[in-house]
Amino acid sequence: MSKVLVAYFSVSGVTRRVAENLARVEEADLFEIAPETPYTAEDLDWKNKESRSSVEMADPNSRPAMKGPKPDLSAYEVIFLGFPIWWNREPSIVDTFLDGTDFTGKMIVPFCTSGGSGLGATTDRLNNLIGRKGQVIEGKRMGGTVSMEDLKTWSDGLDL
Ligand SMILES: Cc1cc2nc3c(=O)[nH]c(=O)nc-3n(C[C@H](O)[C@H](O)[C@H](O)COP(=O)(O)O)c2cc1C
After folding, report:
1. Which of 31, 56, 80, 130 is the most buried (most CB within 10 A)?
2. Residue nearest to atom 4 of ligand 1 (CA)
3. The pLDDT of residue 2
4. Is 1's pLDDT higher than 90?
5. Residue with CA closest to ligand 1 atom 2
6. Ligand 1 pocket, residues with Cβ under 6 angstroms
7. Of all atoms in ligand 1, which is nearest to the CA of residue 18?
8. Cβ neighbours of 96 (radius 10 Å)
9. What is the mean pLDDT of residues 39-57?
10. How would residue 39 be classed by pLDDT, with cut points 50, 70 and 90?
11. What is the CA(92)–ligand 1 centre distance, in A?
């Protein structure tokens, strides 16, 4: 198999832990999708319609800036893409990561953590975002404490 990348966004560390374990299981490279301006607790207040996350997530065209350049994806055929569910979908900064990148011939496998929501329509959204040049396959919601064994069983079961 060619080189594998695990790219992830995480604010409070739950998705980060899963991503790090998945990278170990897959012997994959790890890339953090980090925001140029870090999210504060106030930014994440979903009860406040004016909070940064509420404003960003209400606008499907929002593309918060990433810190640093995007990675060179040329060596990767498979990209695991991890994020927390925000408002039932991927956070806008994940859209920043996907936007304007050529995923031709690449397979993207989303995984998420959440308070309970699954990926829902997120796979379709991501496929639309990458313009169907590459392919986003059906991914999985992970519990924050998912074991390395369970991650391996999951990834072994994917048709990569
Ligand atoms: C702004 C915001 C919106 C969220 N929306 C949802 C949601 O719609 N459904 C859900 O189950 N959890 C939701 N959550 C909870 C996160 O998905 C969950 O805590 C996640 O595991 C955090 O991952 P992280 O530690 O990697 O940032 C939301 C959290 C935030 C901050």
Report:
1. 80
2. 86
3. 62
4. no
5. 86
6. 10-16, 44, 46, 53, 84-88, 113-117, 144
7. 26
8. 20
9. 98
10. very high
11. 13
What's the rounded Cα separation, in Å, for the pair 59 and 159?
A: 34
Q: Which residue has the tokens 């990834």?
A: 155
Task: Provide DSSP, 84-144.
Answer: E-BTTB--HHHHHHHTT---TT-EEEEEEE-SS---TTHHHHHHHHTTTSSEEPP-EE--T
Residue 55 vs residues 33, 47, 51, 62, 132: alpha-carbon distances, Å:
20, 12, 6, 9, 28
| Residue nearest ligand 1's atom 17 by CA | 114
Report pLDDT digits (tens) over 50-108: 999 999 999 999 999 999 999 999 999 999 999 999 999 999 999 999 998 999 999 99
pTM: 0.97
User: What pLDDT score does 159 carry?
Assistant: 82
Q: What is the dihedral of CA 33, 36, 40, 45, to 10 degrees?
A: -70
